[in-house]
């Protein structure tokens, strides 16, 4: 069987698929990853074959917080937000889409109508799929043209999630409200992102083009959003890159180790993490713990580093977390799931940061928000009894230290972390789902293709 993966260009989208791709290759299947040219080295470094959708001159740079486009749809998004009549506890999936995920989709996919010769990398993806003839396309929900490419190539296709299913949840909410409001509700922006691509190849937009024929979901069962989507659960296997194992990390620590990371996304998307970094380092200063903080020079600029803190620009979490007693991080699903899969208690920073976009005319827009994943990861963490939140904007230094001491020394948090690990390992591994993927591909692939 031939399997083509597609991803939005970022390591946070590449790493979650890597264990499944390895499992498929080890089972004798052919695997490739279709992606932005900026991902060529990263894909090759994890032992997979990149299929590039153009060159650096053809495709825009991946969104780095400085080139998100203002599509002049804020008014429509505001109207849709009101029309959906979301309960307060249900607003974060929609807000995550409109604030973070729609912009990254629109950078590489048309919003509404588009000239036939625009977005040439979409044509390149369709051509690559037709030439390589995959049996199955496993696609990133932030790269929705993948479903069109699969249909054009006669392949079965499914989404492979790397976080919560905001897309499936939103399709369900629109269906519910459309039964009440009819056409007055308007169009789901997800449909707008696929319409021009589908029309180019003669397809009507249907739910299958939006959500895949099924969905592979590595999200822990207790954290998933409720959707009608046909879902194949899969165990989250942490993969966070590779690097030489430092000598100082090879021996067990002589005192409890506290790991600190704010993730690559905080470096890329948020304007200023200095207050958060400063507050965290002040919290651990003088404590009888060994602290390892994966922070770069810019994040540490002009901030005193306590004697008990070792800083390092990059270290795979799969190397750092096994010897850690507590993990303090920004709440991203990759970091959260890595710690959960290893049974490590956590503290999630839930404070606000400035987030900046720049429109096509160079106008900068800055607003204050949490990292997209903080609401679901922190809620699941606290409900599971596996950790607490930290917010330097609401808590004093003494209160932050008290929370860290509690998670370090109260065995209830270790029990909660162990239970959360069980939630993850209860799902079938990537190797175990391969026979199911094979059967589903046989069912959904058009006959004779």
Describe the 3D structure.
- With 449 residues, this protein is of the alpha/beta class.
- It folds into 2 domains: 2-235 and 427-444, Glycogen Phosphorylase B (Rossmann fold, 3-Layer(aba) Sandwich); 247-425, 3-Layer(aba) Sandwich (Rossmann fold), CATH 3.40.50.2000.
- The protein is 42% helix and 15% strand.
- It is built from 19 helices and 15 strands.
- The protein has helices at residues 11-14, 18-26, 40-45, 74-84, 91-106, 120-132, 145-153, 166-181, 189-200, 207-211, 263-269, 274-284, 297-300, 317-320, 333-341, 374-384, 397-409, 411-425, 430-444, and strands at 2-6, 30-35, 50-52, 136-139, 156-160, 215-217, 231-233, 257-261, 290-294, 309-311, 326-329, 346-349, 353-358, 364-369, 387-390.
- α5 packs across α8, α6 runs parallel beside α7 (145-153) and α12 crosses α17 (397-409).
- The two termini are 12 Å apart.
- The model is unreliable at 64-69 (pLDDT under 50).
Quick description:
The protein is of the alpha/beta class.
Features:
single chain, 449 residues, alpha/beta, Rossmann fold, 2 domains, 7-stranded parallel beta sheet, 6-stranded parallel beta sheet, 19 helices, 15 strands, 42% helix
